[in-house]
Design brief:
The structure is a homodimer.
Chain A (H helix, E strand, L loop, with lengths): L8 H28 L6 H19 L2 H11 L5 H18 L3 H21 L5 H26 L3 H9 L5 H27 L12 H14 L7 E5 L5 E4 L2 E6 L7 H18 L16 H16 L2 H15 L7 H8 L16 H16 L8 H13 L26 H20 L3 H6 L4 H10 L9 H9 L6 H11 L1
Parallel strand pairs in A: 1-3
Antiparallel strand pairs in A: 2-3
Helix pairs in contact in A: 1-2, 1-3, 2-5, 3-4, 5-6, 6-7, 9-10, 9-12, 10-11, 11-16, 12-13, 14-15, 16-20
Amino acid sequence: MTSAHSASAYEELRALFTRLARFDHLSAIAGWDMQTMMPPGGSQARSAALAELSVLKHQILTAPQTATLLDRAQQESLGDIDRANLLEMRRQYDNAVLVPTSLVEAKSLAGARCEHAWRTQRPANDWDGFSKNLREVVKLTREEAQIRAQAAGVSRYDALLNLYEPGMCSRELDRIFGDLKTWLPDLLQKVVSKQAKEPCQLPHGPFDLEKQRQLGLSVMKLLGFNFEAGRVDVSVHPFCGGVPEDVRITTRYNENEFLTALLGIVHETGHARYEQNLPREWLGQPVALARSTAIHESQSLLFEMQLARGSDFLKILRPLVTAQFGEQAALEESNFIRLNQRVKPGFIRVDADEVSYPAHVMLRYEIEQALVEGEIEVDDIPVLWNEKMHRYLGLDTVGNYRNGCMQDIHWTDGAFGYFPTYTLGAMYAAQLFQHVRNALPNLSADIAKGDLSALFHWLQHNIWQHGSRYPTETLITCATGEALNPRYFRQHLKNRYL
Amino acid sequence: MTSAHSASAYEELRALFTRLARFDHLSAIAGWDMQTMMPPGGSQARSAALAELSVLKHQILTAPQTATLLDRAQQESLGDIDRANLLEMRRQYDNAVLVPTSLVEAKSLAGARCEHAWRTQRPANDWDGFSKNLREVVKLTREEAQIRAQAAGVSRYDALLNLYEPGMCSRELDRIFGDLKTWLPDLLQKVVSKQAKEPCQLPHGPFDLEKQRQLGLSVMKLLGFNFEAGRVDVSVHPFCGGVPEDVRITTRYNENEFLTALLGIVHETGHARYEQNLPREWLGQPVALARSTAIHESQSLLFEMQLARGSDFLKILRPLVTAQFGEQAALEESNFIRLNQRVKPGFIRVDADEVSYPAHVMLRYEIEQALVEGEIEVDDIPVLWNEKMHRYLGLDTVGNYRNGCMQDIHWTDGAFGYFPTYTLGAMYAAQLFQHVRNALPNLSADIAKGDLSALFHWLQHNIWQHGSRYPTETLITCATGEALNPRYFRQHLKNRYL
């Protein structure tokens, strides 16, 4: 596990990052276990073990020797992919070395404490208790943001945003969300009025959990999930975790309603297929990682929103559903399609339809940006939240912290700068899918036949196999002929819902 | 995660071993996942990740600074438990520092290769393929044994035995097994003839797997397993893993027969309760670890053989069984007891009854001792195996490698010196249980009422809470008034089976 003396600096870096990837593997599996399998009594010991490994990884990555190796490797003659790999190594190093281990640790512990307490504070609607912990998370986040901003010569918020979405900035986000604000509330209202005239029946349960699980497995199979290298389980908050060689997705079942779990599985399978198809010969190296959180989300939303909630796919999904639960009026084709395309503004982001979803994201973006930049304080959140929920979704959240500003886990964990990637992902998904439609004229007919091979081949060829080889803009431009263009998203919503 | 400068050497060591325990936690969970949850495609990446962590732990433990700290701490004023903790730290260090990391790694990789190939070689009865890998494992094991033997001034085999059973030596084992050989084959024959006159009906299946699982859970509950700090799952080879805060036991279900899985759960629950009741205020320190593999096995066998296969317990187990599967002739009380006390020599150790089990262990002990000491070679194993199976159990294994010398995983993994601890465990269990009977005159009546609290209290007080505070001999002498005495085991077998 040590490198030979004659190795080039780049070869030594490869060995170093392979070692880090092995530790990442253990973090990923122990983290997955924590959410899916671990009994509550294991929580404290597990948190301590994971924090210890995080500190170790940070120390290995930021050792003085790494900087020397990066500088030396820069001078070496490298192929294109190695050059891209070196760039990603540098990016990881630069991001890590700025922040002292003590701050990494303090932030991780404050986040864990805040998230742990949130589990009981949220059901108790206890904003006072929660905000106390959150203030500490915000304080440490601002410290980190300040250090990063200074080094990068950007704003504090942009410095954090770049950890999730390299190359993105709030100027661009302001432009995108500024545009959204001009048409989305109006579109939403129109869709809601239109759908009010199209009555939609809800399926009658109960829906046996084992049958729901079997249904999920059959859909994963249809979507090409590789069960030799992954599995699906249950967790409170659905996610896609694990490692490319062993991808772990989760969902949560409810006996009264099966579509949330099912479409959740479709969503996570989108993430999973990206992971499972990252370039295998480079696995363990930074260049083999997914490009960014927005690109990752573009794959899950392409599967869930573009593909699976489209009428073509819903027609082949329907028989899989009735095979498990039998026929009933609500599962007849036209109603089944309406069910999956229903738009209904609500309090909870993760349950939102794709039309109201961006409003949830805008709201959080505006608040978290002001919070990180120091323009507002934690105590200002509830009032702002209520104002924006009124403006964007017409909902009142006064006193309803539980289904308002305490509904999410992102701020709790200190992940400021993450939220915008959901809507960027939705936009990339719309742009990619429109381009696939253009590139594959038979797509609609193929989907109706249950043949998704051409679609997957296209994604594999244009997105998955590239890992982090290209910057996001290059990746998207090569795939679709242009950089991010939000008009595809608007067009998609109009086509589907108006 | 770094110690203050003013800390004593002992405090620094405590911090060091806490750190190692956190890494052990991650190894334990990732190892558990590998046996229970992991899809096959994750195997290679998981092995690499676990090996990387093993190397790291070995490096941390054997760093030159550790030796200095151990020497300095020796001079510090310490309480009794701290002194015992320091002794265990020293033992771990001494065991680790002797062997170069390269040999640790080579042995781990050779073991993983041998075990991996064994999975297909065993069903194929492929001794030639298997023995090739095993020779490499034996070669590296001899290297390790030679280094350890030289440092400790003991034989090669004793040096390995001491890794599992500190304080035990082959002279003592020769005495114990020498005695066993004088009476066990005769006892076995008598029991078999006696039982031939007592016909025993087998239960008719199938036995629904979910009902078997529920039955297992109800028995674990009866046995005091803490579900807040552990769980039960399925694996090919049942085991008890995880960490004291989160104990993971496994079993394997067979639709045609439920007793193997059920008594397997009882066995692993014995291990689990020991782990779950190790001294919590010392968790993460070496003194809080289980005393030895034989003491660990004494707890599982006390649960499985002494308690659960005794008539008192079987009478309260029976209604739990019929609650799941209904009544049938084979489940009537007298037949149910006979079923669980049946003695039948067979090829497979893990399926053996408690009378023939020691014969399996003797056979392996004699062969592995000669192998490690260099008196025989891998190619000599099959002939010796057959000779000893004839002598001890009256069975022929010529050409039957699959159910002969290829049935186990211990040698495959290089765990030479482990086998004897099974029979030592059976003897400790018999001695402990006889002493509990003497100490608790109402035990039999309590068990018949399903009240096991006094038994568990006794074990908690005399064994579990002590962790590694005392050497094995002290632990057993304090608990039972004398050191290991095999006569209790003989007496137990005679009482139960003749």
